[in-house]
Write a structure and sequence with these properties.
Largest sheet: 5 strands, mixed
Number of strands: 5
Oligomer: single chain
Number of helices: 8
Strand content: 15-25%
Helix content: 40-55%
């Protein structure tokens, strides 16, 4: 144990296909208290993040900050950060990006925790809603993703997003409309690639 009732966990090997999801589940199983706060190492959250999100958890099972790309990391980051503002006006609904949220430990236990999926945060929100819980993204809390973006990295994240949407059961039509409306063609590519791979495995 570390000072202040903190616990440092060393994972020597990964048993899940998606290591990030596994890390979250390990953390959940060792967590104490009423709220599990998730802050990725490359996320900068506002000073009142913990107070505001945890205070809302009695009413909301999951409370997320609005995560944006840090515009201070170069021109590509500035362009992506500007484009991300369209996220608030998308007509197709939205799911909070992971990396900056607080979740009720009780609600997590009710849905049996995190699953081995690409986007465990979004998966949790979807399952919480199906379980009758309330989730929200607090747009007054803006967190910044400190990664330095490039064209190659942007394409990679779009493809992974498409794979995640397929895994989470998002419909092909909604994925197509998302790709068109938000100018993210490689999301559709990642989605279709996963569909093709699944079809080959079924044969």
């Amino acid at each position: 144990m570390l000072p202040g009732n903190s616990l440092l966990i060393e994972k020597r090997k990964s048993l899940w296909e998606n290591s990030y999801a596994e890390n979250l589940e390990i953390g959940r199983k060792h967590a104490v208290g009423e709220v599990l706060a998730i802050i990725d190492a490359d996320i900068l959250v506002p000073s009142l993040f913990l107070e505001k999100t945890s205070a809302a958890c009695p009413e909301w099972a999951s409370v997320s900050a609005l995560v944006r790309t840090d515009p201070g990391q170069g021109l590509m980051n500035q362009l992506i950060s500007f484009w991300e503002r369209s996220y608030l006006f998308t007509p197709l609904g939205r799911e909070a990006r992971g990396g900056a949220r607080s979740v009720s430990i009780r609600a997590l236990a009710d849905i049996e925790g995190f699953r081995d999926v690409i986007a465990p945060d979004t998966d949790v929100d979807i399952r919480l809603r199906k379980h009758g819980e309330k989730v929200k993204m607090d747009t007054s809390l803006v967190a910044y993703h400190l990664r330095k973006m490039s064209l190659v990295r942007s394409v990679f994240y779009q493809i992974k997003s498409g794979e995640a949407r397929r895994q989470l059961g998002v419909s092909p039509l909604r994925t197509l409309l998302h790709s068109i409306a938000r100018l993210r063609p490689f999301v559709l590519y990642g989605y279709l690639k996963t569909c093709l791979c699944a079809d080959r495995l079924d044969r």
